Amino acid sequence: MVFLATFPLFFSPLTALSAPLSFTVNMSESVTVGTGGGTPRIAVDVGGVTRYASYASGSGGSALTFTYTPQEGDVDLDGVTVSSPLDLNGGTVTDLNGNAITNLTFTPPNTTNVKVDYPSLSMDFINSDYILSGTHYATLPSFLTAAGGTYARNSLGTYFDSSGNLQTVSNNVPRFDYDPTTHLAKGILIEEQRTNSTKYSEQMNNAWWTKAGLTVTADAVAAPDGTMTADRIIESAANAQHYIFDGNSLTVSTAYSLNVFLKDNGRRYIQFAGAGLQAANEAPVFDLQTGTVSLGATNTVLKSASITALPNGWYRCAANVVASGTAGFYIYLVNSSTYHGTNPSYLGDGSSGAYIWGAQLEQGRFSTSYIQTTNAAVTRQADDLRVPTGAWYNQNSGAFYEYVTWYSAGGTTYPMFWRVDDTTNNNRWNAFYNLTGSSRGVDGYNTSALQGGFSHASAVSESGKIAAAQALNNANAAYDGVLKTLDTSWAPPTVTRLILGQGVGAVRWSRQLKYYPARVADTQLQLLTQ
Question: What is the model's pLDDT at position 247?
Answer without folding.
Answer: 86
